[in-house]
Specification:
Strand content: 15-25%
Number of strands: 13
Order of helices and strands: EHEEHEHHEHEEHEEEHEEHEHH
Helix content: 25-40%
Radius of gyration: 18 Å
CATH architecture of one domain: 3-Layer(aba) Sandwich
Shape: globular
CATH topology of one domain: Rossmann fold
Structural class: alpha/beta
CATH superfamily of one domain: NAD(P)-binding Rossmann-like Domain
CATH class of one domain: Alpha Beta
């Protein structure tokens, strides 16, 4: 079977993708600097290189392993960090990605799958659900850096023949999500509720998000890998808006927690409302979400409880 290199392979989404590919018989090579990922997340069947995509020695992995495909999940994902330190965000998300693309070009990688952000690149969408033709107007450096790499992918395809697919994720949640990270609101709420602590809802909590289960995201990557699709961007979301207040109440009831949330100051750079139109992914990849939010939260709670 083909060999797939996953950057951020020991992270939340990357390790779930790795599990699915291993189940399908692929050989998996993971690259992770373990700044947020963990060896515990990664199957022993996958080979792990503790490397940083921003450093030149990433090239040694390509020289040794010669991967057929690359799934690029490694990133700086914190919206707040991108606002307070946009230079760091660009260094990781843009320069790190360019470093990786140079390796893909030089070592004849067949296709790159790129984890983009449907939740951040559109800004405040013109209509909901937002489709792939929605104007790109990010409100935060994170969204700008993610979209910048999409443009570089197009350039590498046109100039060097490097095939790619960009998957614009909604808000991904599920087992192995880090409760210490800004992007993991489900994990944060779950961690605090289980400890009897008051979760913080930033702003009034009426801001909406599109929550997509990590298993569905992994499946989208598998389909994008195996289909002939190339040079295309796909929204990977449910098309359903859920407010943060609604999410919190759903989780509080499911966990039988009698804890009220407190409200903090709204976060700069965050969109007010977002959900993604996934019809293009349905049409061309044969993908649509199979796990409802209620089912996904139950699966996540089961994992969280077993881990605790």
């Amino acid at each position: 079977m083909p060999k797939v290199l996953i950057t951020g392979g020991a992270g939340f989404i990357g390790s779930n993708i790795a599990d699915l590919l291993l189940d399908k018989g692929y050989e998996v090579i993971a690259v992770d600097n373990l700044s947020t990922g963990s060896r515990k997340n990664l199957s022993k069947e996958a080979k792990l290189y503790v490397k940083d995509i921003c450093r030149g020695d990433i090239r040694s992995v390509f020289e040794k392993e010669r991967p057929d495909y690359v799934i690029h999940e490694a990133a700086q994902i914190n919206v707040r960090t991108s606002v307070t330190d946009p230079v760091f965000d660009a260094k990781v998300n843009i320069l790190g990605s360019l470093n990786l693309l140079e390796c893909c070009k030089d070592y004849n990688v067949k296709k790159v799958l790129y984890a983009s952000s449907g939740g951040a690149i559109y800004g405040e969408p013109v209509k909901l659900p937002a489709d792939e033709k929605n104007p790109i107007r990010p409100l935060c450096p994170y969204g700008a850096s993610k979209y910048s790499v999409e443009n570089y992918l197009y350039i590498y395809k046109k100039n060097f023949g490097l095939d790619y697919v960009a998957l614009r994720y909604a808000n991904v949640y599920g087992p192995r999500q880090d409760p210490l990270g800004e992007a993991g609101v489900v994990a944060i709420f779950m961690s605090r509720l289980s400890g009897g602590e008051k979760p913080v809802i930033y702003g009034d909590g009426e801001q909406t998000r599109d929550y997509v289960y990590v298993g569905d995201v992994a499946r989208a990557n598998l389909l994008a890998l195996e289909k002939r699709a190339t040079g295309t961007e796909y929204n990977i979301g449910t098309g359903i808006e859920t407010s943060v207040n609604q999410l919190y109440e759903k989780m509080r009831k499911a966990m039988s927690a009698n804890v009220s949330a407190v409200h903090g100051k709204a976060v700069a750079g965050e969109v007010r409302r977002i959900c993604l139109d996934n019809r293009l992914a349905q049409k061309e990849l044969g993908w649509k979400p199979s796990v409802t939010l209620t089912e996904g939260l139950e699966k996540t709670m089961q994992w969280f409880t077993s881990r605790a």
